[in-house]
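Q: I'm writing up a methods section and want to include an example of the input and output format. Could you take the sequence below and give the corresponding predicted structure tokens, formatted cleanly so I can copy it straight into the document?
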Amino acid sequence: MGGAVRVRVTLERVSHRFFPGTPRETVALEGVDLELAPGEFLALVGCTGSGKTTLLRHLNAQLRPTAGRVRWDGKALPADAVRRRVALAEQFPEDALFADTVAEDVAFGPRNLGLSAPQVADRVRRALARVGLGEEHARRSPFALSGGERRRAALAGVLAMEPELVCLDEPTAGLDWRGCGEVLELLARLNREEGVGVVLVTHRMEEALRFAHRVALLRSGRLVLAGDPETVLARPDLLRRCGLEVPPVVRVQELLIRRGLALASPALDAAAAAQRILRALEVG
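A: Here is the clean output for your methods example:
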């Protein structure tokens, strides 16, 4: 997808204000420094109003900073050049489905790139295959699909643009547990097998900690913590102060630690946590 080159995005002291200079002025981001490595899977977490979506929209130049700057591979680029490399899927992307068939919907973006009919058809076929939809889905109306299938069809339209980085705003919102798992496993597979960069906005810490290489925590428009899942898990009190729920498996281990069990920092994986607990009980 998109060849071997992957984009590096750098935010330098990025701030964003909505309605500046008016009584409605709102500070959405304040002095954010963040770098996304090529092919990285990054989760942006924080409570409602923390600035996650605003930051996400800077990555594909839908928004521009009111202070600071964003660079793609060290350069300022026009919006159309950025969007050929960085795709953005808003919340409930299936709401934008409009065509008579899934194939026509997925073809919309590649066709607007000026690709030939055979190239568009190839993009559509490969994008649908990536999200686990086949020819039988391609010929159907998007409105005849299940909720999870519609979400995947909408993501296929994003992937058909063959971006180097995919930015997704709460891609599991409104899905049942099966649909959530399908979408997240899809993103993880694209990242792992094809090297596509992923930025996932979520308020579900379990999603962030399980799938991301790195987690960036926002609070009131400021970046307060960025690190690998283990680093973030080591700060459960900070997560709570930022309005986030600590995963149940972590809460259980915290309780055991408070009751005197000699555990290291909590594990997110339930099987790994069980092994740690059993070893600690044997030692004790």
